[in-house]
Task: structure prediction
Amino acid sequence: MNPLLSLDNLTVKRGDCPVVDRVSLTIGPGECIGLIGPNGAGKTTLMRAALGLMPSTGESSLTSLSPAKRAHAAAWLPQAREIAWPVTVEAVVALGRTPHLPRGAKLSATDQAAVDEALSQMGLEGFRTRLANQLSGGEQARVLIARALAQQTPLLMVDEPIAGLDPAHQISTMQAFQALTEQGKSTLVSLHDLGLAARHCTRILLMSKGRLVADAPPQEVLTPKLMQEVFGIFVHYEQTPTGPIFQPLGLT
Amino acid sequence: MTRLMLLLSALTAVLFVASLAIGPAEASLAETLSALFQDDGTPLTLIMREIRLPRALLAVAIGASLGLAGAAMQGYLRNPLAEPGLIGVSSSAAFGAVLSLQTGFAATFALALPFSALSAALIGVLLVLALAGPRGASMTLILAGIAISAMAGALTSLALNLSPNPYAAHEIVFWMMGSLADRSMQHVTLAVPIMALGWLMLASLGRGLDALTLGEDAAASMGINLKRLRLMLVLGTSCVVGAATAVAGAIGFVGLVVPHMLRPFVGGRPSRLLWASAIGGAAMVLAADIAVRLVLPERDLKLGVVMALIGAPLFLHLIYKTRKELA
Result:
């Protein structure tokens, strides 16, 4: 089976300084991958360059696709939560169906089903007719995640989707990504909550200063040694009957 | 949605008929309409076909153009303060027209002025596209538009400054106020095909503008080709605004106020706003052009002036409303 995304020596330079430095990786079907690293490590740049939204050197399997084809291969949720006009929540989520609709066509039953499913996954059924730009920040974030889910692509790339969400919605969002793996879809999610990454991700990518320094299951990446080297923190990490527990304890 | 379209269309139709029926020649509505359709040999037929019909047709075409371009520009920039003049086409077209008046070229043949305005608009838009660069970002487009507007504005002032006599200066100033008086069918046949080309380009943007509601990155990832979208927007706006300015002079506020007023009625969707603003713009310019003839018939009130007098208070009202919503 073809990988959903493969990067080979992907490099992005800002002036002479590499922001993403020779990153190679492959994403197969059915993975929930956490992308972690300190601020400025190059997480967002890596994802945007992989999608072909900014110039880069090296190879990404998505950049050679036309915008229309790429929209069927991967969905992207930027970190900036922008909803420019007073449109309803349902209309925003329905925008995720844009790549699937012929020009000028109305939503089909399949499209409407995808919208309904995304709304229910994000717990937004009661918000359908509310104006999206008047919701709270966390609610808007959930609306935009639902939009990306409604695109129903094999690969979903999301940039810090759970920042600003309450604990229940942080967990339900990560569970929604996990649920996609059962359909053979994969998610690449950047996040700073390493505890949630430990519990919900099948694999962790750790970036530091533009380099990919680790790419392995959570227990092999969230080790005291790596956490100290990359984040400068010492941590508590333990496997318990209720799942792994990860807690940063202090600065080294 | 369809009710809004019907309502706006009906309003436009009524205003169109009213525009045909109003003028210094005294005649009843029935007489004017029958003179329009049947050549009964009276001067009224000539008045209807050569004076009032082109005027009403241009009001519809220009209003629709400015409304459509305004909705497209606001949708593209995701800013309710955007207007079609932002990319510098109207200033360039105005400069071309002023130059032809100043040099006397405008008097050489019937359509000399609109031709020079259109040529200057074309040069302006090519410069904007060259300055804005190849990537699809909106910021560089605004900056390029502002630069070209400023340049064209400066050159217009220079032309006025160097005008050979007070009469020429007077003519230029009056032309810049914008008017539909004394336009002929020649103006219609020159402007409408160019505008129609622009309407087609702008009408194709709906889907992309909807996606842009969520920002440029999100739109690009949903399969929207931003480079193509921006090119179509610039070319479409240039066609409609360039042609409108060439035949009627500078008419502001339509592209700013109409989309802003109609946005709540189309659920905020940029694609629906395109059509609504086109029809709404036609109605607004028709209404203003009727007001021009009713308020001070003997003083040759200029359409651009009346439009600004209607538009500015409407805009103030909208700011007041927005302020309350934000509070």
Chain A has a mean pLDDT of 92.
